[in-house]
Amino acid sequence: MFRNDMPYYEIISPEGLETIERGWKRLVSEIGIEFLHEEALELFRAAGQKVEDSVVHLDPEFVLEMVAKAPSEFHLRARNPEHSVVLGGRNMVFPCVSGPPFFRTGDERRDGTLSDYELMAKLVQSFPQLDMATMPMIEPNDRPLDSRHLDMLYASFTLTDKPIFGSALSNANALDSIEAARIVHRGHDLFVPAGEDGRPTTSIMTIVNVNSPLRYDDRMLEALLRYAEAGQGVVVTPFLLMGAMAPVSTVSALAQQTAESLAGIALMQLVRPGTPAVMGSFLSTTDMQSGSPAFGGPESAKGLYASGQIARRYGLPWRAGGGGLTSSQTLDAQAAYEAFNTLLAAFQAGANLVVQSAGWLESGLVSSPDKLVMDVELLRVLREQFSPLVVDEDALAFEAHDEVRHGGHFLGAAHTMTRFRTCFYRPMLSSTENFERWVSKGGRDTATRAGEIWRETVEKYELPAMDESVHDELLAFVNRRRTELGD
Predict the structure, then answer these.
(1) Mean pLDDT of the chain
(2) How confident is the model over 298-327, as pLDDT tens digits?
(3) Structural domain contains residue 359
């Protein structure tokens, strides 16, 4: 977890925010939001909202009243308390890549496996810049579809002791994720409404994606309802590619994103007031020539700046619409500059949760440990870059000038000699060697060095300790549920 105390970059005027608010209010009230789940519809009916078939026409003031019940900050418990995080405020939390079906190392691109998932979990555990394991870090296509979430839960909880995301693909997946968290965190209440600092504590989170435009499907709603009942955190995220799931207008897409996300958060508060919720954003563009998703462009950055402003307006923790995003197929310059553009914008915009922070390639189709290493380097740079500059008498280093005087050099000065190991940022991945030395060591490019780093990291990986009785109970639960699911 990183605390971002730098000024936020805000691009929308107060009048502009009012315009976007009028836009989302018209969407929820005049067009409405479709909820394809009778339980959700009944909750809205009981709350006095207008329901026509599966479309709910929401009173905007009702939405704001419900959203105000969600906490502005909350704790997310880790198996190791040292890795627990706080969502909201000036805190930034960095989960890794989530969702790809394919896996790539070097020039090999193939279907993901459970072994690949386990490898990614080990890397998340090993790099301190990454705060959370997602689900799926890579889709384990060699495991049965109905029960693979159990394999991922077991791997995430045993190979890492950091917070994790649970599954949101079905009612059963959600309940299994919550029960696994209950086992792992036994001795603690799964949900604590208010701790000593007044913030609630949740034990697992998930991401619920809106089936944009303006629709929640039944599977996502089942997950949202189950997590909310248990008081567990939900990141409510519209997935908007302008030109496909939203108009080709950034302002219109922002209004749609706000309408969709706030409607889901309002539903959560109907289920259990005070349930932790994160306002999600995932706003990018469609290539108007090919129809393919495009990531890392200027519209994405502007969407991030604006989304941060909007989330703060409603007092909600905010998931940035992008970590190390890129449309590139491989670890090249495009992958680097597109990833840096979205990560930088997330820092500038004051994001609290930056999903897809490391490992994303090919518009989210590919999970890559090579790319994960590159993105970790970007995170290391940005965390240093967004740490405030300390300005004091010691930093003026007058004694160095007094020693060197006129026309000298500072390489051998006492001030330099006592500080040279820590005075500047030292890259993990980048090469600063002269050309001759670089050639003598094989002329390795960034992709080659990244592959060497993650392989060395995996070799040094140490399994985090876990109470044996907890492990046995978790494993027994996974095996029992796999049998019940017919796998």
Answers:
(1) 96
(2) 999 999 999 999 999 999 999 998 799 999
(3) yes
Contact 188, 171 (CB under 8 A): no
Is cis: bond before 60, omega within 30 of 0?
no
CB 162 within 8 A of CB 83: yes
3 state DSSP class of 92: strand
Encoding tokens for residue 455?
A: 């392989």
Q: Which of 287, 308, 284 has its CA nearest to residue 296?
A: 284
What per-residue confidence (pLDDT) applies to 322?
Answer: 79
Q: In whole angstroms, what is the distance from residue 62 CA to residue 5 CA?
A: 33
CA-based torsion, 353, 3, 83, 326: positive or negative: positive
Q: What is the CA radius of gyration of the chain?
A: 23
Spatial distance between the Cα atoms of 353 and 357, rounded to a whole number of angstroms: 9
Conformation bin of residue 397: beta by default, left when phi > 0, alpha when psi is -120 to 50: left
Residue in the structure block whose two tokens are 């590159």: 374
Q: Which helix (H) or strand (E) holds 459?
A: helix 446-460
What DSSP letter does each residue of 189-249 carry, written as one string? Answer: -SEES--TTS--EES-EEEEEE-SSSEE-HHHHHHHHHHHHTT-EEEEEE-EEETTTB-S-
Decide if 319 contacts 356 (C-beta within 8 A): no
Quote the number of domains for the chain.
Answer: 1
Report if residue 146 sits inside a domain. Answer: yes
Contact 353, 319 (CB under 8 A): yes
> Is 309 part of a structural domain of the chain?
yes
Q: What is the CATH number of the domain that holds 256?
A: 3.20.20.480
Q: Could you tell me where the DSSP H helices lie in 272-358?
A: 298-313, 333-349
- Cis peptide bond prior to 213, omega within 30° of 0: yes
pTM of the model: 0.96
Average pLDDT over residues 127-148: 97
Instruction: Name the residue with tokens 């045993």.
Output: 158
Range of the domain at 350: 2-8+67-385
Q: What are 410-435's pLDDT values in tens digits?
A: 999 999 999 999 999 999 999 999 99
* H-helix or E-strand spanning residue 294: strand 293-294
H/E stretch holding 91 reads: strand 91-92
Contact 340, 378 (CB under 8 A): yes
Cα(452)–Cα(177) distance, integer angstroms: 34
Residue 467 included in any domain: no
Contact present, 307 and 257 (Cβ < 8 Å):
yes
Buried b (16+ CB within 10 A) or exposed e, 187-206: eeebbbeeeeeebbbbbbbb
